[in-house]
Amino acid sequence: MKKFELSVLDLAPVKQNKTIHDTFNQSLELARFAEQLNYKRFWLAEHHNMASIASSATSVLIGFIANGTEKIRVGSGGVMLPNHSSLVIAEQFGTLESLFPGRIDLGVGRAPGTDGLTAKALGRNPMIINEQFPRQIQELQQYFSVENATSLVRAIPGEGCDIPIYILGSSTDSAWLAAEMGLPYAFAGHFAPDMMVNAFNIYRENYNPSDKFPQPYIIACVNGIAAETNQEAKKLATTLYQAFLNIIRNDRKPYSPPVNDIDDVWNPMEKAHVMRMLHYSFIGDEETIKNQLLNFQEAFQVDELMITTHIYEQEARLKSYEIFKNVVDGMFQ
């Protein structure tokens, strides 16, 4: 079985009866804890118009997390590139890399990270997204290059910065693009599991080696909820289930505490929909998590597993990440 790295995806979740200030401090606490446990990286995801997620100003929050940590890589998982000017993103991440050398990642996606009306408010043009997204990645590469010093438009800071770019996806489209451009690929298995198998196959079979990335590199993002017992983990997971239930109900309220019986909250059709979206979720005690991870890695042979954890209580959230790290470390001793 291929050895894999372990990382964190944080959505800066806003919880009932907590402030956004509380949210940011808990994200920093998680990042520091993940750093102590030797997680590889800590990514934050751009979303908009959601009362449950506070990571809309992604680059600002990355700076806050990087400033409060020492060695863990910090980045975007991702910046939704068509929401922005390529030059502005190059300047923002060039600034971050200049402040925190060798620690900044730039993961980019093409989705809006929000609803249609908010996407329009962000200035997106849906008619040109498919051609705009790859062009913007090329623009970023140009702005970051030393050769761009002779250009009439320069990213200062940004020019000459060694900032790795990762292409994010939840379908096969971005797999083709990442393979063609010779860039690492991160798949959103935590909410869009259906195309993951095909996406990984397409990426590996069509990979075009690049100078920075001579070999394909795959990150799979999944949901993870670990606890001392299976029963406790299943109860903690009801916060995750409610969060996704709110998505399909178009109810963007803050995260809810766990409930004793989730079947009192959803109907059978909603349950089926949520469970399909959460197909790649690892929930259980240490032994259960170990078996789930072994089965997953034997099937997919990923280079990195990125865990996102929807747990209401911060202490239990930290404990879950500790269990995952202990399990993975034990698998490769």
From TrEMBL:
Coiled coil: none
Similarity comment text for this entry: To bacterial alkanal monooxygenase alpha and beta chains.
Taxonomy of the source species: Bacteria, Pseudomonadati, Bacteroidota, Flavobacteriia, Flavobacteriales
Stretches assigned to the Luciferase-like domain: 22-113, 143-299
Cited InterPro entries: Bact_Lucif_Oxidored, CmoO-like, Luciferase-like_dom, Luciferase-like_sf
Name assigned to this protein: LLM class flavin-dependent oxidoreductase
